[in-house]
């Protein structure tokens, strides 16, 4: 799939979020990368060779205090290569992109991996 088409899928996943959730994306950058780096895998607690579809880096909304300010934007990275490798159709890619965007956005909102597993977004 072309990068441009993949970018449109990510943009659509964000656009389709409920307005109340989209409003919480202030100071969040969403980027697309081909593959996770070793550092990305380590940040996610994974070993080299394990699969990572997305990564949230930042301070979750629930962890911010009154001293939060002048901070760099939080960052959500969506990894195109692993998603395409794991999915057998364009439909499956679209579904995984939506799921991954939701998963990483949930981390921004303050949900843990255990919380996400209970919601079926592991």
Order of helices and strands: HHEHEEHHH
The overall pLDDT average reads 88
What is Rg? 14 Å
Write out the strand line-up for the largest beta sheet, numbering strands in chain order. 1-3-2
Secondary-structure content class: alpha+beta
What is the fold-level CATH name, i.e. the topology? Zincin-like
Largest sheet entry: 3 strands, mixed
SS strand fraction: 5-15%
Determine the N-to-C terminus distance. Answer: 25 Å
Q: What can be said about this structure in brief?
A:
The chain has helices spanning 3-15, 19-22, 38-43, 80-86, 90-109, 113-118, and strands at residues 28-33, 54-57, 74-79.
Task: Give the SSE layout.
Elements: H1 3-15, H2 19-22, E1 28-33, H3 38-43, E2 54-57, E3 74-79, H4 80-86, H5 90-109, H6 113-118
Helix pairs in contact: 1-5
Textual characterization of the structure:
Helix 1 crosses helix 5 (90-109). The protein has a 3-stranded mixed β-sheet. The protein has a single domain, classed as Zincin-like (2-Layer Sandwich). It is built from 6 helices and 3 strands, in the order ααβαββααα. By secondary structure, the protein is α+β, with helices and mostly antiparallel strands. The mean pLDDT is 88. The longest helix is centred in the last third of the chain and has 20 residues, at 90-109. The protein has helices at 3-15, 19-22, 38-43, 80-86, 90-109, 113-118, and strands spanning 28-33, 54-57, 74-79.
Features:
122 residues; 3 strands; 46% helix; alpha+beta
């Amino acid at each position: 799939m072309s990068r441009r088409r993949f970018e449109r899928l990510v943009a659509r996943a964000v656009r389709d979020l409920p307005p109340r959730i989209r409003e919480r994306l202030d100071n969040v950058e969403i980027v697309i990368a081909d593959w996770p780096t070793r550092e990305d895998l380590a940040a996610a607690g994974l070993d080299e060779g394990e699969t990572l579809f997305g990564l949230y880096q930042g301070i979750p909304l629930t962890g911010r205090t009154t001293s939060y300010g002048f901070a760099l934007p939080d960052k959500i990275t969506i990894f195109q290569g692993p998603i395409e490798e794991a999915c057998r159709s364009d439909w499956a890619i679209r579904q995984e992109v939506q799921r991954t965007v939701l998963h990483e956005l949930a981390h921004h909102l303050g949900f843990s991996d255990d919380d996400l597993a209970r919601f079926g977004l592991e």
